[in-house]
Amino acid sequence: MRGHIFKLRQENDQLKKDIAACEKTKTELTRTASEAKQRSALAGRNVNKRIPVFKVTTSTGRVRRWWWLDISASELELYIK
Fold first, then answer.
1. What is the 3-state secondary structure (H, E, C) of the chain?
2. Would you say 36 and 73 are in contact if contact means Cβ atoms under 8 Å apart?
3. Which residues fall in a coiled-coil region (predicted)?
4. pTM of the entire predicted model
5. Digit-coded pLDDT (tens) for 28-73
6. Average of pLDDT values for 13-29?
7. How far is CA 60 from each of CA 43, 52, 63, 64, 65, rounded to the nearest angstrom?
8. To 5 degrees, how large is the angle CA 42–CA 34–CA 18?
């Protein structure tokens, strides 16, 4: 019985971590969408077909890889909501 409770607590902790990670990702996507909308408004046209979602950096801080979404900012906002 004690082992079962311990296992459930571990699963609960892992679920809390997963939820926090999802919320962080949602926040990042929302910010990315709003930044892309601002860029397109400044440019006067819809130039945000490829939205950078996040980047992978090396230990020295150099960007190694970008991950992109190939949708517009307004579509991304609808997807998040």
1. CHHHHHHHHHHHHHHHHHHHHHHHHHHHHHHHHHHHHHHHHHHCCCCCCCEEEEEEECCCCCEEEEEEECCCHHHHHHHHC
2. yes
3. 5-39
4. 0.39
5. 877 777 777 776 666 555 555 566 666 666 677 776 666 666 666 6
6. 82
7. 33, 21, 9, 10, 14
8. 155
Rounded to whole angstroms, what are the CA distances from 41 to 11, 22, 34, 36, 47? 45, 29, 10, 9, 9
User: Alpha-carbon distance 25 to 16, whole Å?
Assistant: 14
Contact 10, 17 (CB under 8 A): no
Tokens in use for 76?
A: 């991304």
| Position with higher pLDDT, 9 vs 43 | 9
The CA distance from 39 to 50, in Å, is 12
Backbone region of residue 31 per phi and psi (left: phi > 0; alpha: psi in -120 to 50; beta: other values):
alpha
